[in-house]
Write the structure tokens for this entry.
Amino acid sequence: MIVNREALLENIRQWQEKIAEASAKWGGAEICGVSKTIDPETINMAWDGGIRTLGENRVQELMGKIDHLNPDYKIHLIGQLQTNKVKYIIDRVDMIQSVDRDALAEEINHRALNAGVVMPVLVQVNIAKEPQKAGIDEELLEAFIRRAAEMPGLRVEGLMAIMPIADDPEAVRPYFRRMREWFDRLRDMDIAGVHMNTLSMGMSDDCLVACQEGATMVRLGRALFGERNYH
């Protein structure tokens, strides 16, 4: 893990340049810094490098460190979310990226209404139909989004996807392309309550291909912070 401030900031700068170049044709992409297992002190250094959005995977870990993070960060929950954990984060995060089933959408809606908030969400798509991965199959996507759009406690802001692991990022380029096609198609449908501002796809190994194919946000953990000390 990179803990030297100057090295971290230089690493962030280099990735910002690569992302900007790869996504230029689409108007640029934002880096979401994936901060699981990273200590708050290191995470807060990334602010000085221009990182403004953090992605956390686990509710318990997030709740243990959120009060030690720069309060100006936008915090996104990007990991698979259990319905019984929604209550802990409904007024603590700025977006939930991993809405992947009706029961979760309904629970977020219920908790948001009780808390007096409207929660921005991304709908997670299982674009490669991997049985072990969460997400909505694309054949069910439009209908699911229309149902979610009718929930007053949600604001559908776009789509999220996790690609298959591949030795060569080119192998997953078709999936990124199809995600962008869905993003554009749903935006053109102009569904009430659906905004399609964010297409979150691409991680450390495949983010440049994702940017070339139209990602508006990439989720970078290892690329920014180095190898993690998992616990």
Observations:
- The chain has one domain: 5-225.
